Amino acid sequence: MLSHCGLPLTLLLLLLLANGAPVVLGLLFGAAAGPVDGGRVWRDGRPVFGRSKTWRGLAAALVLTPVAAWILGCGWEVGLTIALAAMVGDLLASFTKRRLGLVSSASVPVFDQLPETLLPALLVAEAMGLDWVDLGLAIGAFVVLDLVLTPVGKRLAGRRRR
What we know:
Helix 1 (about 10-30) runs antiparallel to helix 2, helix 2 (about 55-70) packs antiparallel against helix 3 and helix 4 crosses helix 5. This protein has five helices and no strands. The chain is an all-alpha fold. It has helices spanning about 10-30, 55-70, 75-100, 115-130, 130-160. The longest helix is centred in the C-terminal third of the chain and has 30 residues, at about 130-160.
């Protein structure tokens, strides 16, 4: 198997998969039951993470990203690290947004993308043989793609509900 692991494009693809798999499943199959926070609220009376952070989405990222990383020659461990760190970053962003009083799925450009990309990128940079320029390219491309694709996904989800 030919390895594509040392390319910023490979990191970008794995970040897109880890963060996009839960969204795509939601678009294909509708909202999932089983929020990660179990519907619990924090001391401030607001949800811990919100209803859009589900076990199905978490499982999708944790299964699909290691498989893709293995296929791309990076090793499943790199994929699992990316998926875990992306999901932790996403949950951290959601937790912070709930503390700020923002509703679930409220958009905060750049803040929404950084924790779920920067954390995994930093953790796998050495294993993937990527330098700071490579990380910047992958993270920058992810932010731009996410800012463009998120409104499209929300429109599709809105049509699905009708």
